[in-house]
Amino acid sequence: MTRRSRPGADGVRDRNESGQAQNQRPRDRYGRPMPHGSVGEVDRVPDDAEFTVEEGVAEAQLLLDGGFAFTAHEVLEAVWKSAPEPERELWRGLAQTAVGVTHAQRGNRVGAARLLRRGADRVEAFGPEAPHGVDVAGVAAFARGLADDLDSGRATSGDGIDPSGMRLLRA
Q1: Who is most buried in 14, 37, 92, 136, counting CB within 10 A?
Q2: How confident is the model over 8-45, as pLDDT tens digits?
Q3: Is there a contact between 134 and 170 (Cβ–Cβ < 8 Å)?
Q4: Cα-flanking dihedrals φ and ψ of residue 165, to 5°?
Q5: 127 burial class (0-12, 13-18, 19+ CB within 10 angstroms)?
Q6: Residue 39 covered by a domain
Q7: How many CA atoms, within 13 angstroms, populate the side-chain half-sphere of residue 116?
Q8: pLDDT class for 167, splitting at 50, 70, 90?
Q9: pLDDT band at residue 1, thresholds of 50, 70 and 90?
Q10: What per-residue confidence (pLDDT) applies to 46?
Q11: Which of 45-49, 94-98, 111-115 has the lowest mean pLDDT?
C-alpha cells in the first residue's frame, strides 16, 4: 500500500491509495495522536489486524489491565470485524465499552457515559450464556457502574479511571 500525504489540520495527512485518511502518527496511552516524530506510548493496531477470539480476548485483557483501554478497543474492534454475524454485536459492544473507558480517561464524561451504556446494552443482549465465556454481566455491571459514577461525579475522568476492573471472561 502506497502512502501519500495531503494537507490536513496539521499540514500533513497520511492517506492510502484510495485517498482514505490513514493517520500514522504515534499515539499516547489514551489513543490521542502525538506530534510527528514523537515516540508513541503504545504500539498501534494495524487497520487490517486479525485476531482469533482467544487471541483478541487475551490481548485486550492484558491491555485493559495495563490501562490501555484505547488499544484494547482497537483489538476488540478487529475481532468484531472478523466475527461471524451472530456474534458481531457482542464484539461491537465490548469495543464500545472499551472506547467508553477511553473517553472517560480523556475527560469526556458525557460521551463516555453514553458509550459505556450503549456497550452494556449490546453485550447484555447475549445473556448469561454468551459465546466464548464472555462475562456479559460483569462487563455490563462495570460499564454501567462507571457511567453512573461519571454522571454523579463520584468518578472524575482522566488518569484516575482504571480499566483493569473490566474482566472480559467469566471466572
Answers
A1: 136
A2: 455 555 666 766 555 678 887 887 787 888 887 777 78
A3: yes
A4: -75, -10
A5: exposed
A6: no
A7: 29
A8: very high
A9: very low
A10: 81
A11: 45-49
CA distance 134 to 136: 6
* Domain hosting residue 75, numbered range: 53-152
CATH number at residue 107: 1.10.3450.10
This prediction's pTM? 0.83
Answer whether residue 107 is part of any domain: yes
- What residues have CB less than 8 Å from 121, skipping those under 6 apart? 93, 140
Domain annotation covers residue 102: yes
Rounded to an integer, what distance in angstroms lies between the CA atom of residue 21 and that of residue 13?
A: 7
The residue with cell 460483569 is 138
Distance CA 64, CA 49 (A): 18
Q: For residues 108 and 34, what is the distance between their CA atoms, to the nearest angstrom?
A: 19
**pLDDT confidence tier of residue 141, bands split at 50, 70 and 90:** very high
One DSSP character per residue, 44-82 reads PPPTT----HHHHHHHHHHHHHTT-HHHHHHHHHHHHHH
Report how many domains make up the chain.
1
Q: What separation in angstroms does the CA of 29 have from each of 50, 100, 102, 157, 159?
A: 21, 14, 9, 15, 10
Q: Which of 3-17, 90-104, 109-123 has the lowest mean pLDDT?
A: 3-17
